[in-house]
Design goal:
Layout (H helix, E strand, L loop, with lengths): L5 E4 L3 E5 L5 E6 L2 E4 L4 E4 L3 H18 L6 E6 L2 E5 L2 E2 L2 E8 L2 H7 L6 E11 L8 E2 L1 H6 L5 H23 L3 E12 L5 E4 L7 E5 L13 H4 L5 H18 L2
Antiparallel strand pairs: 1-2, 2-3, 3-7, 4-5, 6-7, 8-12, 9-10, 9-12, 10-11, 12-13, 12-14
Helix pairs in contact: 1-6
This protein binds uridine-5'-diphosphate.
Uridine-5'-diphosphate binds next to strand 9, helix 2, strand 12 and strand 14.
Length: about 240
């Protein structure tokens, strides 16, 4: 296999092999999709922005003892990552009701949850990424019981750390999605990305339900100023990282 050959192209990233089988290169794209890829578009600069935000957040989490796949950034829209086998599960953590939780339960948008909710969705486009019960997850052997326990614990810990970090950015972490993978030593690592594509972030300075939106919902709901919101999140993240040095 030649060096840097493409091994996978997803909706927002391309993954390349490197000369080291333990290391992959993730190339973040400007492409954006929503509603199981029924809505498609591009967000100018998103590749660079999401790669930078994700990298900073992975480094923050690593500093707090969370193991991630992040290695370094050879270019602004590129991340070298540890090669992992991604578990076919989307792990969603929610602090405030939004999106599919409102649609499926009737909870009003913005309802503050008494405690964070951890949910598992089946990463399967053909089935439309359905919500899983723990038993269905185990039935389908998408992860072991031990992995489910570790992931739940990690997801709650990451929620605490990210929630605190975003608070310092004057952003409310409403909900977010995580993906985990297993490396060649069977270590569980936080993988994929953490960005305005995968988090709902509300500007604390605004109570307006449209203006406060600083994430992909601007694209999903055609709220406009998508690039500006992503750029603003990056600037606040960089400032928060700088301030704690
Ligand atoms: N999410 C994601 N990828 C997905 C589905 C959801 O990154 O394929 C994120 C989404 O951005 C939000 C959280 O997970 O921050 C919860 O999403 P929800 O279940 O409400 O789905 P949505 O209505 O956004 O499709």
């Amino acid at each position: 296999m030649s060096v840097n050959s493409k091994i996978y192209e997803g909706k927002a990233k391309i993954l390349y092999k490197t000369e080291n089988p333990e290391i992959l290169l993730a190339d973040f794209k400007d492409d954006a999709t929503a509603f199981n890829a029924q809505k498609r578009g591009t967000i100018a600069g998103k590749g660079n922005i999401n790669c930078s935000i994700s990298s900073k957040l992975f480094q923050e989490l690593e500093a707090q003892g969370i193991k991630t796949h992040f290695i370094d950034n050879p270019a602004p829209n590129q991340m070298r990552v540890r090669a992992v086998k991604i578990l076919p599960i989307e792990v969603v953590v929610r602090n405030i009701a939004a999106g599919s939780l409102c649609k499926q339960t009737g909870l009003e948008l913005g309802t503050i949850l008494g405690q964070p909710l951890v949910e598992f969705y089946y990463k399967n486009d053909e089935l439309g990424d359905p919500l899983l019960t723990r038993d269905r997850l185990l039935l389908l052997e998408l992860a072991t019981a031990e992995q489910v326990e570790s992931i739940t614990h990690l997801a709650l810990q990451i929620n605490e750390l990210l929630g605190g970090f975003f608070q310092r950015c004057d952003l409310t972490l409403v909900d977010f999605k995580l993906e985990f993978g297993v490396d060649s030593q069977q270590q569980l690592l936080l993988a994929d990305e953490i960005s305005p594509d995968t988090c709902r972030l509300w500007d604390m300075a605004s109570t307006d339900t449209n203006r406060r939106v600083m994430d992909k919902d601007r694209f999903r709901q055609d709220l406009g100023n998508v690039e500006d919101a992503y750029q603003e999140v990056l600037q606040r993240v960089l400032k928060a990282v700088e301030n704690q040095k």
